[in-house]
Amino acid sequence: MAENKKVLIAEDSSVIQNLTKKILMMQNYSIHSAKNGKQVMDILAKEDFDIILMDINMPIMDGMECSKAIRSLDNKEKANIPIIAITGNAKNYSIEDFKEVGINEYLPKPLNFDQLVETVKRLSS
After folding, report:
1. Three-class SS state of 26
2. Minimal CA–CA distance to 33: which of 118, 73, 107, 47?
3. Cα separation of 124 and 82, whole Å?
4. Partner of 36 for a Cys bridge, out of 4, 60, 71, 76, CB 3.0 to 4.6 A?
5. What is the pTM assigned to this prediction?
6. Does the 6-124 domain belong in CATH 3.30.70.20?
7. Which residues contact 88 (CB under 8 A, 6 or more apart)?
């Protein structure tokens, strides 16, 4: 069980956000959410997280831009938070594209929730 690790879910789909939230809360994670990359940056300015789940296709600031912005933060602890990309359009990007902007791993949509929990546990420990 995760002892109240904090997860930030960046996802513009309420359905995916709510499902992910419920599943991770059952694992004792503390969940915060954002609908776009700008909200992620605003929330990160005020709070610390153990891991970020990042949708790639979001309005205002997409997941690729947001990941790049996180990696260039002055606060090294925040700049190194593990980021898991979640996307239905992975074929538009290669794993190298993800690595280039600082994404640690990606999970394809539709999400396999067992894989999600396993990946979050592994990267947030």
Report:
1. helix
2. 47
3. 7
4. 60
5. 0.94
6. no
7. 57, 108, 109, 110
Cα three-residue angle 109-62-75, rounded to 5 degrees: 110
Q: In what order do the strands lie in the sheet with 6-10?
A: 30-34, 6-10, 51-55, 83-87, 105-108
| C-alpha to C-alpha distance for 40 and 20, rounded to whole angstroms | 17
Long-range contacts of residues 55-58, Cβ cutoff 8 Å, at least 24 apart: 55/10, 55/11, 55/12, 55/13, 55/16, 55/85, 55/86, 55/87, 56/85, 56/86, 56/87, 56/89, 56/90, 56/93, 57/12, 57/87, 57/88, 57/89, 58/10, 58/11, 58/12
User: Per the structure block, which two tokens stand in for 45?
Assistant: 């300015």
